[in-house]
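Sample intake sheet
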Amino acid sequence: MKKIRQRWYAAGIAAAAAGAMLAILLPGAATSGPDRPANNILARALDIELGRATPGPHEQLVSSGLLYPVLEASGALEERANAVGGGKGGANGASCASKFAGGGSGASVNIRVNQDCSLRRQSEEVIAANPTNPDNLIAGQNDSVIGFNHCGYDFSFDGGKTWGSYVPPFWQFVLLDGHTSDACSDPSVSFDADGNAYATGIIFDVNSAANAIVVAKSDKSLGGAFFHSPANLSFQQYRDVPLGVVANDNDPNVAHDKEFIVADSWQSSPKKNNVYLTWTRFTDVNAPIYFSQSTNGGATWSPGIEISGANAAICTIGSGSADPNACDQDQGSDPIVGPDGTIYVSFFNQNVPGAGHNQHVVVQCPGTADCSNPANWSTPVRIQEDFGGQPLGPNAITGCPAGRSCLPPNGYRVQDRTYGSISIDASGKLYFVFSDFRNGGPPCR
């Protein structure tokens, strides 16, 4: 059996900290199996999670939503659950409790949004409000109602008091290897200015290299009650395919991750109702941020372009790109659109010296420009430094697995590669929130 391809960081980290290129070598060829994915990016992530490999000081990690189906296939999740007396949880269905009393002295009530009643994790949640009807909400989450791990979407027409739940029509899409996908991760949803909704997810086959980013639409008359093909065809609302295709690969050294979708919902914008998507494109050498746009309601998408750029003032640790100052070790991009149509994309970056010393940066494309052209994107600018010193596993005190961060005494999961969130108000003022560990210390060790 050929050895799985893995990324090995060359010796000489001190030289890399001074700005030298950080070489990554991938000997061998990939082979698939229950505990060894054919996609080398996912195989590397599995090895790190299980403690079989150690991440480099500036290496990005794939999101847990993308990783956990791989852990499921390997049997590691069941072993962990059994170790703590857990298991796979109860049966799914609509009979589980839908309301939960809030804590404290108030009379708050927490409402169940989705219909997955098992004990499995419903993570990477998103929510969007319809700009034409604030009582119409759509939420999304990694969901196990039809099996682990899939994307689920939920809808409300009464401001969140009651919800319906829906699985998007992603499962008829055929990947480039000829298979339909068996997992979906990183759900994201957005409304445009007219109240049309768009849902997306990363779909992939755990035991093959293929993975894709697809988009479905929910017309303004539907409010997210169900999603359909975004293609402008007769009987569109009754069609599952064709889906909008943002990215589609069958390369074992490429994996798409952490995609976020946003539609231009400003009535004043010159690009009203355009739809944009950003994501991390993991390769065998780097993890830059990519961008694609749709100008026809999600039906077709422009070829993906790299927008994370380069800046010698803030990105000094090369990782294999032709430009030694490329800001290309990224995760957690977050796109937002301003009233004038300008697109802002924030993301987390690790092309900086020093373990645990990272940064949040932002790029933008003007509302007057064609954002499918890489030349129209700005040089990345630092928003804020980030101090990611949270204690990493494996940790016997917290029970945290390798490569992840948890806090004692109960193993509460914290961000180990902290992703921020960007927003904008009607005046065009930007806001950014994030978490870091600059004021952390004992007993967090």
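Comment: The longest strand covers residues 133-143. Helices lie at 13-17, 40-49, 64-74, 76-83.
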